[in-house]
Amino acid sequence: MASSAGLEHDRVREAYRYCERLTRTQARNFSYGIRLLPPAKRGALSAVYAFARRVDDIGDGSLSSEQKLLRLQQARHDLDDVGPDAKDPVLVALADATRRSPVPLEAFHELIDGCEADVQGTRYETFEQLTHYCRCVAGSVGRLSLGVFGHEVTGLAAQRADALGVALQLTNILRDLLEDRRGGRVYIPAEDLRRFGVSLELDSRGMFTDPRGALHELVRFQARRIERWYSEGLRLLPLLDHRSRACCAAMAGIYHELLRHIADDPSAVTRGRVTLPGRQKMVVAARSLAGMKS
């Protein structure tokens, strides 16, 4: 008969396998960086991604707003059940990850706060308000990742992980400008829209009605501002071990490359969602691994 310790080990191993399968099939950009980690950290970061994806899927799903808010409240309660005996494999994997590394599970509550704002249709008057939202939905994941990497989530490292998360989320917002607007979401601060004389209204075809020149200037302005967040966030890399640096550099590098593409061709985000070819993502990941060995 198998021992209880052996059964628990098998359960944890299967939980990690579940999270890694989900990450491989759904993480897209993040999977290029995650695969550069050693097995233990790869499993832990996959568990973080799996829970974060679950929260995001609630916010982006087709349920009513009331049902979404109830599901998000349940996700908060689920965090209290993180443990080796949980029925949910994601919670089992998270329990093991927190046992091995200083992963700040409380940061998931900030992610849920941000998703609740999405469900409620929150719009932002100022850039400061928008960055608070970005810290909730992406800075939180940056700090969770920092814990997975084995670094204490304090001081400069936590600030830089937070800044890098904000940079990635702001890039997402710019990338998804048209798709989000078609879904009724506007993240660009109202003060910026007024500054550039842009309304982000759509015509009968679902395309922006604003003059192209004004839209392009707005996009370039946002891209320049996002670059400053990358400048701060990428200063996290020297604080990490070489495999964690490679992972972080690959994930951030893909989004940074995407931002450069948008800055070079601001009309791209007015036509639809902007993506990088898979081959280009692989080049960024390979370059990150080669450049971060020490």
What layout of secondary structure does this protein have?
Blueprint: H1 4-26, H2 29-34, H3 39-60, H4 65-79, H5 89-100, H6 107-119, H7 127-148, H8 155-175, H9 177-182, H10 190-196, H11 212-233, H12 242-264, H13 268-271, H14 278-292
- In one word, what is the shape? globular
The CATH architecture classification is Orthogonal Bundle
Strand content: under 5%
Radius of gyration based on Cα positions: 20 Å
Class of secondary structure makeup: mainly alpha
- N→C terminal distance: 46 Å
* Helix segment tally: 14
Q: Report the uncertain regions.
A: none
Oligomer: single chain
The average pLDDT is 92
CATH level-3 fold name: Farnesyl Diphosphate Synthase
- CATH superfamily membership: Farnesyl Diphosphate Synthase
Element-by-element helix/strand order = HHHHHHHHHHHHHH
Specify the CATH class. Mainly Alpha
Overall strand count: 0
Integer tally of domains: 1
Give helix % range.
over 70%
Biggest sheet statistics: none
Short description:
The chain is mainly α and 294 residues long. The protein is 72% helix and 0% strand. The chain is built from 14 helices and no strands.
Molecular structure report:
This protein is an all-alpha fold and 294 residues long. It has one domain: Farnesyl Diphosphate Synthase (Orthogonal Bundle), CATH 1.10.600.10. Helix 1 crosses helix 5. The model has no long low-confidence stretch (mean pLDDT 92). The chain contains 14 helices and no strands. Helix content is 72%, strand content 0%.
